[in-house]
């Protein structure tokens, strides 16, 4: 999962201009100031980056970056 987490952090920094130092596994997406539109953009970007389907209900504003990485890792294990 560490690789998935690092790729997700890179995606957050490149897509949303976030500082990697401000992102931790316990950071919620809302704490990173991602609004509902940004969450949709993140979901689409993550689907393209990891080649997995992510439902809107799987990542919400109170999801943490670590939880998002776990969701993606779980989907990668199934593929």
Describe the protein:
There is one protein chain. The protein has helices at residues 2-16, 36-50, 65-78. It is mainly α and 79 residues long. The radius of gyration is 11 Å and the shape is globular. It contains 3 helices and no strands. α1 packs across α3. 56% of the residues lie in helices and 0% in strands.
Could you list some keywords that capture this structure?
79 residues, mainly alpha, 3 helices
Q: What would the average pLDDT be, to the nearest integer?
A: 93
- Say how many strands there are: 0
Number of helices: 3
Radius of gyration: 11 Å
SSE pattern: HHH
Short summary:
The protein has helices spanning 2-16, 36-50, 65-78. The protein is mostly helical and 79 residues long.
Write the layout of secondary structure elements.
Layout: H1 2-16, H2 36-50, H3 65-78
Helix pairs in contact: 1-2, 1-3
């Amino acid at each position: 999962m560490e690789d998935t987490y690092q790729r997700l952090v890179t995606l957050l920094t490149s897509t949303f201009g976030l500082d990697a130092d401000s992102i931790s596994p316990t950071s919620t997406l809302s704490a990173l100031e991602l609004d509902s539109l940004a969450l949709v953009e993140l979901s689409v970007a993550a689907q393209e980056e990891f080649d997995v389907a992510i439902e809107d209900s799987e990542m919400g504003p109170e999801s943490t970056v670590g939880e998002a990485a776990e969701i993606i890792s779980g989907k990668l294990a199934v593929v």
